[in-house]
Design a protein that fits this description.
This protein has 231 residues and is mainly α. The chain has eleven helices and no strands. The longest helix has 47 residues, at 2-48. It is elongated.
Length: 231
């Protein structure tokens, strides 16, 4: 009986540590998503110069962003979704991304998940944008306590080699494994992240810090330097 009590206390402590890690780093990832959307906007904007029609859509989108810059979240979402419904082009998709991100930032997780899932299923979008939508859907599930199976379903093959979103996908899956009391799986992914020379130093530093939280739930783990020595 006492062993069961101590096991429960240990599990609760590990969950608390990982909840703290997610509070620190999960929100960072969502914030980073905004920067990625800006880059997407730049790509679409460059492409928009090719035709007058798309150039006009670009102007309408810029005007919308100016109009809603100081708006409350609900109004911002409503305006973005209305724009998306009216614009059958890249800027309409970008508005849909922005609406889903705003839902996530406001804690409206069901709406955010629906938005990202819808974007991931839009076959007219480039694969890179659909992958990005799937990644954001996984983040929403992680932030809202979704099931491990649902998170894995959204990540799919994003954590595989040759995918540009692999580092972020790896990080999200490591957090998901940790949150669902699978520290060994989390440890393996974090050590892969640390040992991957193609990953930027910021992501590797985050992985090193998160690995310390995972270590707290295990009796013994290889030191981080083992992965670093493989470079």
């Amino acid at each position: 009986m006492e062993d069961n009590i101590f096991d429960e206390i240990t599990a609760d402590l590990r969950r608390d540590r990982l909840a703290g890690a997610w509070d620190k780093y999960g929100r960072y990832i969502i914030g980073l998503a905004v920067a990625i959307v800006v880059l997407v906007a730049s790509v679409i904007g460059y492409d928009a110069l090719r035709t007058g029609q798309r150039e006009a859509a670009s102007a309408r989108y810029d005007a919308l962003l100016t109009q809603i810059a100081e708006a409350e979240a609900d109004e911002k979402i409503t305006r973005l979704l209305a724009f998306s419904a009216a614009e059958d082009n890249g800027y309409g998709a970008l508005a849909q991304f922005s609406a889903a991100l705003t839902h996530a930032e406001e804690g409206q997780y069901d709406n955010a998940l629906d938005g990202f899932d819808a974007l991931a299923g839009r076959r007219a979008l480039p694969d890179s944008l659909r992958d990005f939508a799937s990644l954001q859907a996984a983040i929403v599930l992680l932030d809202s306590g979704g099931s491990l199976a649902d998170i894995k379903d959204r990540i799919g093959d994003l954590a595989e080699d040759e995918n540009g979103l692999q580092p972020m996908a790896r990080e999200i899956m490591a957090l998901a494994f940790s949150a669902h009391d699978q520290p060994l799986e989390a440890r393996d992914l974090l050590m892969q992240q640390i040992g991957d020379s193609s990953v930027n130093s910021l992501a590797r530093d985050r992985a090193s810090i998160m690995l310390q939280s995972v270590k707290g739930g295990l009796l013994a783990l290889p030191e981080v330097e083992e992965a670093e020595g493989d470079e």
